[in-house]
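Predict structure. Chain length: 444.
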Amino acid sequence: MSAQFVTVVGGGLAGCEAAWQLARGGVSVILYEMRPERSTEAHQTDRLAELVCSNSFRSDNPHNAIGILHRELRQCGSLILQAADEHAVPAGDALAVDRVGFAECVTGAMNDHPLIELRRDEVTDLPDGPLILATGPLTSPALSDVIVALTGKSHLAFFDAIAPIIDADSIDQSIVFAQSRYDKGGGDDYLNCPMDKDMYTRFITELLKAELVPLKDFEQDVKHFPGCLPIEVMVRQGVDTLRYGPMKPVGLTDPNTQAQPYAVVQLRKENRAGTAYNLVGFQTKMKYGEQLRVLRMIPGLEHVVFHRMGSVHRNTFIESPALLDPWMRLKTQPRIRFAGQITGVEGYVESTACGLLVAWSVLAERLEKSLDGPPKDTALGAMMGHLRESYTGKFQPQNINFGLFPPLEQRTPKKERKRAYSVRASSSIEQWLIGVDDILSNFL
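Prediction complete.
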């Protein structure tokens, strides 16, 4: 390996994963994180890999697209997935984590590795040498301006959102009931706040009347990301939208009535101790006073104490298919690579995967060997395909989903398709990793 170090800018999931994979391969890394010198609208601590939105990595079921990506990252030796598994909290078939324990674990890994030098400074210009920009959707204004000047294209933008977190002791346990939808996971991993039709109607009425935080000038034309809509945006799509979204009651039975509620608000543990819960899917841009008024209408939360209010923030990303090559190198300056959400992947796990693959491409380049990308029928390959290939219309961020995978070769009954995708991906990733091991034999 060359003695030249690699600079990674951004201490989020993608940046930490990239730094870790490079260090595993014997490459020295300088990892920049601007917090606490400069914070963002969404972060609250100076920990690396702080989860600013949900504490969930979504479904861990290997018959779901995101579950396949979990499996593949574990096979690749992902630090982020290892930390998530070590700090998991009950969440049905989802992989949710103790937010603090997870971030402390990743921060410790970065601080303790002898080949990683962590610098707590804001980067306002591009460092010399090999560079990975993993600054995420909350890239600082100064560095954003540098990137815009570098690429010759303006950033696209969308809104992302944060759900409220509440104190467990302030929940009225006589009203809520513990049950996972369809009894998945441990069967009682969620608390459920049940509503009848009249309660739901009153709640929707007040939600529609609630005052919102005004948009800043630069936010006026920014679109919401479809996978993370604020509740006040969803409800304006139709009075029953929430009942078919985050408030859907299917698979749940209220023990007080022995019937399915008309609607529910689900609460998921924020930590292993169960001292805090978040309101699942309840990201919002309501003013804080309005959140107190409206959310305390939810049965069981009438006197709830909030550890963190909900919020919405602006995310930015670049036009990757036009600007980057298949290994996320800037076409006009190949020494510069991008990784994570700034590329247009959406989600914790997708960002992690992007960071890992970009780091592997650097390692292969150091060995002067050619590394083929993951097959398109794997979750890793499907995700990267979204960033690589030509497209029509506007490029928009996406979570991993089966729509990004190539179609199945054989006709498969609908109820068996997810399993078929999973089996095919499992075979392909194993074969690909054999080839990767031949190239990076001293690394994996």
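Summary: Residues 6-155+318-439 form a domain with the FAD/NAD(P)-binding domain fold (CATH 3.50.50.60).
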